[in-house]
Amino acid sequence: MTSTLAAGPHANGVAVAAPHARTRTGGRAAPRPRSILPGRQRWEVDLFRGRPGLARVAEASLRQSPGIEDVRVNPVTGRVLLRHDHTLGPRDAARLLHLAVDRVCTALHTPAANALGTEPAAPPACLPEARPPRGAGGTARRLPRILGLGCAAAAALAGGPLLLRFLRRPLLTLGAAAAATAVVVRRAWRRTDRAREGPDGAGPRRHAVRRIVGRHRRKFGVAALLSALSTLVEMALFALTPSIVLLVARGGSATLTRYGIAGISAQLGTLAAAGALACAVMAGTGYAAGVAWRGVAQDVEDDWRIRTYAHVQSVAPADLENERVSRVNAVLAEDIGQLGTFVGTNMHDVVQMGAGLALLVPMFLLLAPQLAWIAFAPIPLVAWLSFRFHERAVADTAACGERRAQLNSRVTENLHAHTTIKSATTEAHEIARIGELNGRCSEANRSAGRSAALPPQILRLAGGSALVGTVLLGGRAVLRGELATAAFGPLIELPGIAMLKLSRVGSASDHYQRTLAALERIERLHELPVEPAGADGPAAAGRELPLRSLRGRIELRKVTFAYPGRAPVLRDTSLTIPPGRTTALVGTTGAGKTTIAKLLMRFRHPGQGQVLLDGTDVRTLALPDLRRAIGYVTQEPFLFDATIAENIRYGTFHATEAQLVAAARTAGAHTFIDGLPDGYDTRVGERGAALSGGQRQRIALARTVLRDPPVVILDEATSAVDNETEATIQRALAVFGTDRTMLVIAHRLSTVQCADRIYVMGSGGVVAERGTHDELVALGGVYSSLWKLQSGGPVLT
User: Fold this and answer.
1) What's the rounded Cα separation, in Å, for the pair 378 and 795?
2) CB distance 31 to 100 below 8 Å
3) Nearest residue to 543 via CA among 620, 600, 628, 623
């Protein structure tokens, strides 16, 4: 069968078509595109999720393909980063990924391959690292482990007395538990090293918590210290309770008598005072810890949001077009908020749990070493089970976040398209689509919930077993006279407190997994390349552009440009826009008129050739200076949810009221603004929804007039106004454009008939005709035909 790539996120709105190659991938194994950029693709393959062996097989297979520069497969989330050189097209790179997944599916005898009746291919040499399928082969592979576990169980039963004598040695028990736990942690850490590699493949990143906290490590340390002190004081308070009970039961304490506190009343008062002091210290340190954690959380959240937003603002428009606005907004709001919630709440619980265990271990070793083994034995098992379910839970949480993002994106899009949906009477269709996406999101949530619900129950089971064992064995030791009652008393309360702390690990683990998924989305946004500002320099680098001496001469020299996945829009295009004059670009749709404006603004960069401003390549100019020198008014201008005055002043914030009104008059906007109840203080609503399209265009035009740039680009800037308003604007622009370079892009020829020079663009950016309006009409060519068609005259054939 032929595998089809669904249209997914991509650069410039160009979908990667299906690679015409026979592949056997299907269902959950089929790769799904996440973003397609020139030389870089991101995919999601459920087959690799939770399977590091398969991830390495796919990486090795793809790296052997010509044109592939680098491959990174994340076995935790199942995401694939594919980098390729310019000799390999997007279709070919996608086809190679599909074939690699197909080979893995075939070698593993997966249902995706067997369903088509294909013969399995020979497995790769590194296939034994992959997870085997269930069946006879899987049973045979698990047989050695089953036999090993059986032998270990038989040995434990046969050597029970010897094992018990070994376990009663606390140092040996603690050492064995620590060694087993270290082995489990090390193996889990090595398995996840590849999942934590940086985007450049330079090696594993720093631990997630260190990356989240960043430069706020000192405040984090202070908050952790306060949490630990609060927990230690709390456990000391609960350890005093059995001591007070024993004091009353025995009628006094010999220990306190030796320290000069004689009499049961004095001793009881001393212990009560110590308990009251512990309560006060516990409350004080707990309050200070809560304030400190919330402060660190707010600092972390503010830091990440500011840095992420600053990075988004520095990303090139071509790269940001590939990211959905709803996704970027979710990262800036929800995901960064998740980092703050994790630091402010869950890290507090984790530190308290660690401090409780740190106190519990030495107390068992000092007061009841013969009971230490029952308290320490479950630790390696708990660690192994936690890490075993961790990767699955992280993958489920990542899938849950992805489904939620898809649902939010579609809901946002539908709200913006409300009028379109109503006019097309597709309400039922959209309700069904939202229902389907909501069902997928709900199923992902349930799966993530099941994964997150198991670890805390394992911890409860282990903690409860340790508590029961401690009470049983400790009680017997007291009855035999091997353990003092005063020593055993505190140990009854402390395991319960430790168990209470451990019960919070489930919530902390769930939030940690959600935080990892959120951190991955944030860091993926940070991986978007920033704009190249000048000659290989940072954003402010490049040659300075003095605005006062700028003449505004624009020239394109043999420029070739193509959007990814498309034929070239401009092929060897050359034209000159003289300074201080009005030049118009007209022609068919797709002739590259708007592309020329984007190249001049450096929203895009030519593949070949040069774009010059006053004889200087715009790529060598400082980017802020270049864009300050050019006023750009698009066909669909954006207005902020603010007043009309604030929208006109945007970019020229210190303009006077007189300058504001003069700019509005020039743009033909003053009349309708003055007729509004609140005038210039009228709020325009979200994206200017309270105004008509023509009113929005005139406000955007007034914004550019107020900036007074030496070069102005009008890209269909008057397409939404009526003929009378257009005539008014044209008369005002004739005065405003005096000694100013004006580039007018239009389909309506009445807009450009007064231009000093008109270029008629053809397919591939070829300049078909050039001249003034009268010259082109007299020429009897393409422009003349368009003019007669629009003016109602007879069209020459």
Assistant:
1) 90
2) no
3) 620
Please say whether the beta carbons of 788 and 795 come within 8 A: yes
Give the N- to C-terminal CA distance of the chain in Å, as an integer: 49
Six-digit token pair at 478? 């007291």
**What is the DSSP code (8-state) at residue 103?**
H
Calpha distance 57→134 (Å, rounded): 19
**Contacts of 75 by beta carbon, 8 Å cutoff, 6+ apart:** 48, 49, 50, 51, 52, 54, 55, 194, 195, 391
Instruction: State which H helix or E strand residue 742 sits in.
Output: strand 741-745
Number of alpha carbons in the 13 Å side-chain half-sphere of residue 134: 1
CA-to-CA distance for 267 and 273, rounded, in angstroms? 10
Contact partners, residue 312, CB within 8 Å, separation at least 6: 320, 328, 332, 525, 528
| DSSP-derived secondary structure for 501-561 | HHHTHHHHHHHHHHHHHHHHHHHHHHTSPBP--SSS--TT-SB---STT----EEEEEEEE
DSSP for 23-91 reads: ----GGGS-EEEEEETTEEEEE-GGGTT-HHHHHHHHHHHHTSTTEEEEEEETTTTEEEEEE-TTS-HH
Q: What contacts 16, CB < 8 A, 6 or more positions away?
A: 5, 7, 8, 10, 33, 36, 41, 90, 91, 94, 565
Mind spelling out the 3-state secondary structure of 728-739?
A: HHHHHHHHHCCC
Taking the C-alpha atoms of residue 669 and residue 720, their distance in angstroms, rounded to an integer, is 13
Instruction: Return the pLDDT at 108.
Output: 65
- β pairing state of 630-633 and 711-715: parallel
Residue type, 787: W
CA distance 736 to 746: 19
Dihedral angle computed from the Cα positions of residues 435, 438, 440 and 442, in that order, rounded to the nearest 10 degrees: -130
Token representation of residue 318: 């071509």
pLDDT, averaged in runs of 10, over the chain (797 residues): 38 40 48 74 78 78 81 76 77 83 71 38 36 44 57 57 57 67 63 46 62 88 90 78 66 68 76 82 88 91 90 80 74 87 85 79 73 69 67 68 78 78 81 86 79 69 72 77 69 64 64 81 83 54 66 89 82 89 86 88 87 88 85 83 89 89 87 87 83 84 88 81 75 80 86 87 85 88 84 53
Specify whether the backbone of 679 is left (phi greater than 0), alpha (psi in -120 to 50) or beta. Answer: left
Going by the DSSP 8-state scheme, the letter that residue 752 receives in this structure is T
Query: pTM surpassing 0.90?
Result: no
- What is the strand order of the sheet 608-613 is part of? 570-577, 554-561, 608-613, 616-617
Q: What is the spatial distance between Cα 556 and Cα 577, in angstroms, rounded to a whole number?
A: 9
Say if CB 467 and CB 495 are below 8 A apart. yes
pLDDT at 206: 64
DSSP string, 389-403: HHHHHHHHHHHHHHH
Q: Could you tell me if 396 and 510 are in contact, meaning their C-beta atoms sit under 8 angstroms apart?
A: no
Instruction: Assess contact for 717 and 634: CB atoms under 8 A.
Output: yes
d(CA 393, CA 399): 10
